[in-house]
Amino acid sequence: MRWRRLVPRMPRRPAPLLLSGLLLGLAVPPFHLVLPSFVALVPFGVWVADLPAGDVEGRAEALRGGFLLGLVSYTLVFYWLLTSLIYYTPMAILAFALPVLIMSGFLAVATEGMRQARVRLAWPLWIALPVFWTAVEWLRGHLGPVSFPWMQLGDSLAATPRLAGAADLVGSRGLSFWLALVSGLGAGLWVAWRSRGSAGAGRPGAAGSGAADSGPGGGAVSGEGGRGRRLRWLAGGLTAALALPIAYSVVRYETIDLRPAARVAVIQPNVEEDLKMKEEAAVDTAMTSFYRLTSDSVLPDTAGLDMIVLPETAFPAYVESIPSTGWAGRPDILGMIRRVARATDARILFGAIGSHDLGNGDWNYFNTAYLMDTGGRLVGRYDKHYLVPMVERVPFVPPSWLDRFPFFGGFARGEKAPIFRSDGGSFGIVICYEDVFADWPRRYRNEGADFLVNITNDAWFGREMPWWSRTSALWQHPAHLAMRAIENRMGAVRSANTGISEIIDPLGRVSHETALFRPAAFTATVMTSDVRTLYDRWGDVVGWGSILAAVGAALASLLRGRREGGAGGRGAEEAGRRPAT
Between 20 and 30 A from 546 (CA), which of 57, 128, 285, 297? Predict the structure, then answer.
C-alpha cells in the first residue's frame, strides 16, 4: 500500500468549508460576535447543495468535506484542551486530538446523511441541515462517560440574552436547530438566486443540478416563474425564521417578573493550579486567602447574608474522618470555616475532597461540595455527578484499578442531586463543567430549586502569563451557566477559583463579573423568577426529534437506494436528480 493512500484527500472545493469553520470559531466566546452564529453554516450549506448526486463520487466528497469542516471548527473551539493540559502531560496531545477526530467523524457521516436525504428523499436543504447538525450535537451529549456537549452552536448566543430567550421553550440545542435552519434557508436562497438565468439550478453534475426545481411543496417548478416563486418563498421563510423567535425573546425579556432569592457572598481565592496540586501548600494558601477575603476590610457588608460561596476544591484535602483507615479528617480546616460562619452568621458552601468509608481500610473519594450552617455543623454535601474524562475518571476503567494514582482518574461518581436551602431560597449545585449538561439544572428546577450555584476551578484553562495561555475556555465555560439560567428562568451564582466569578439573573444578564487571576470577594442579591418554562416541562424535544429524524432519514435512504439499485435506478441518480433547496 502506498503511503499516499493513508492520507485523506481534500475535498475539491474546500473554501466554503474553511469559511464555515472559521465563522463557527468566531461565533463562540470570547469573541461574542452575533452575526457568525446566524451565517456560519451558510457556506457549508451551499457546498452541500453542490455535492454530486452519485453515490460513488458524492459519498466520498461528502465524507471528506464534513470531516474537514469538523477539523477546522472543532480545533478552533477546543484548542484549549491542548494548551491547558500540555503543562502537565504529553498525553494532552491525545486528549485534544482524539475528541476532535471523533467529532469530525460524526460530522462527516452527518454530511453524507444530508446528501442522501436530499438525493433520495427530496429533503430541502433548510430541513436537512438543521436536522443533521442538531443530531450531531445530541450525539456529543449522549456518549456516556465521554459525553462532551461543550459549546454547541446555540450556546454562542449566551452573551446576547435578548436573542436567546427562545431557549426557555426549546433549550440550547433548540437554538442550534434554529440557527442551522436560518443558515439552511440562507444557503437555499443563495443557490436559488445563483441559478437565475441558467437552465439548471446548480453546478453541472452536482446534487443541485437538473432541469427542474422543487418548490415549497416538493413538486417540480421550472422556468423563470418557478425560480422566482422559490426565491420569494425562501426569502419569506428566512424572514419568518428570524423574526418570530427574536420577537418572542424580546417580549419575554421585557415581561418576566424577578424576585430576590438569596443574598450571597462570593469568594475568589485565586490559587494557581500548580500550587493546588500540592495539598498542604494549597490548603495553607486557601485558608489565608479565605480569612483575608472575608475580613471586614474586604467584605464589610455581611448584614443579612444568607450564604458564602467558595469554589470547587477550595481545600483540596479530605476534611471528614475515614474511621476504618484511622484518618481523623482536617479539624483545622473545618474549625477555620466554622469560625467564619459564626462571625458572619452565614452558611458556607465550599469545595473539598469528599470520602465514603467502605470499611476495612477502603474508601471512595469524590469531588464534593459541603454546606456548613451558621452553627458550624456540616448539614449537607453534593458529590459531583458528571466527571471530567481522564482527569477525574478514566472511562470504562474501575476506580479500584487507579488506587495508586490518588486524585487522578479514580474519583467516584455521585448519584444524588439534593436540593439545599439558604435562608432566602432553595438551590442546586453544579460543580465545574456540570453546567454544560442541561439536564442536571433542569432536574433541580423541576424539584423546586430557586437558583443554581456553580463552583468551579478554571485555573486549568489558563494562566495570567504568558498571554497566549489565557485560553478561550475561560470565557466559554461561564457562557453555559448563562444559558442554563435562560432555559430554566432561574438565577445563578458562580464562584471560580481564578475567575470568572459572577451573578446571573433569569434573563441571562451577568453582573458582578470579576477579573481573571485576581483575588476577589463581593456580596450580591441573587434574583430568580416563578416562571416554569416549557423546556422545564418537556426537556430536549428538539434534540431527540432531530436524532430520530436523522436516523429515520438514513434508514429510509438506505432502503430506497437498495430498491433503486435493484430496479436499475442508479442511472437516474447519476444523471443528476433534482433535490429541493
Answer: 57
User: Grid coordinates standing for 207?
Assistant: 446534487
**Pairwise CA distance, residues 78 & 270, whole Å:** 24
- Distance in angstroms (rounded) separating the CA atoms of residues 467 and 510: 25
The β-bridge relationship of strands 491-496 and 502-504 is antiparallel
Strands, E assignment, 416-561: 420-421, 426-431, 451-456, 491-496, 502-504, 510-511, 520-528
The residue extents of the domains of the chain are 26-255+539-574, 259-530
- Indicate the average pLDDT of the chain: 88
Burial of residue 89 (CB within 10 Å: 0-12, 13-18, 19+) is exposed
What values do phi and psi take at 311, rounded to 5?
A: -80, 180
Residues in the chain: 581
Lookup result for grid cell 487522578: 408
Cβ neighbours, 10 Å, residue 530: 12
Q: What is the pTM of this model?
A: 0.91
Predicted pLDDT of residue 391: 76
Q: What is the pLDDT of residues 67-113, one digit of tens each?
A: 999 999 999 999 998 888 777 777 778 889 999 999 999 999 999 99
Q: Which residues contact 137 (CB under 8 A, 6 or more apart)?
A: 149, 152, 153, 173, 176, 543
